[in-house]
Amino acid sequence: GQNIDQPTEMTATEGAIVQINCTYQTSGFNGLFWYQQHAGEAPTFLSYNVLDGLEEKGRFSSFLSRSKGYSYLLLKELQMKDSASYLCAVRSFYNQGGKLIFGQGTELSVKP
Amino acid sequence: DAGITQSPRHKVTETGTPVTLRCHQTENHRYMYWYRQDPGHGLRLIHYSYGVKDTDKGEVSDGYSVSRSKTEDFLLTLESATSSQTSVYFCAISESGGDSANTGELFFGEGSRLTVL
Hints:
The complex is a heterodimer of chains A (about 110) and B (about 120).
Chain A: E1 3-5, E2 9-13, E3 18-25, E4 29-37, E5 44-49, E6 53-57, E7 60-65, E8 70-75, E9 84-92, E10 101-102, E11 106-111
Parallel strand pairs in A: 2-11
Antiparallel strand pairs in A: 1-3, 3-8, 4-5, 4-9, 6-7, 7-8, 9-10, 9-11
Chain B: E1 4-7, E2 10-13, E3 19-25, E4 31-38, E5 42-51, E6 54-57, E7 64-70, E8 73-78, E9 87-94, E10 107-108, E11 112-116
């Protein structure tokens, strides 16, 4: 089976940097995704990692270590609008149809 | 934004009644998914489809059925709704499912909030 763990809640200050961790267990790893979800809205795609290393996209970066089953999402220069839930999801070669298995999400609160 | 619409967006129904949620896409994507989202559980896959008339179960499929007679439509049916099926239901689509150079990320609809009394 697959198991994904991420912290339930985090709080950070506007302008700061925050790192949201995700650990996973899966066989046939075929990609890790990060999504952002504001309250009452649909999840939106943030980043994708399939090889080890860092992927940077503006203020957001995502890191993957396949040997450790570990990823993190790094948010820089935090803004109030970054207050949202951040979802880590994993895909396996053994999951027909490319389906993603999601963690419970990390609720990030950005304070002034 | 990916062209995905869900209907109805909100529905209140009574225990024991049938309910059908519709997902319609204009992207001609092959893969379609139904997830439910509940506090403390995150997004959980109910059923998915990898082509017209090709569907399979997800991790929480009991009490649900699906149908896909056209590429653009994926229907989720609760034959006899129960209070435990009160949830927010999200439809998602994917172009490749990760079986090509495309990353295969999922694009989500706006969600359908279902309350079963």
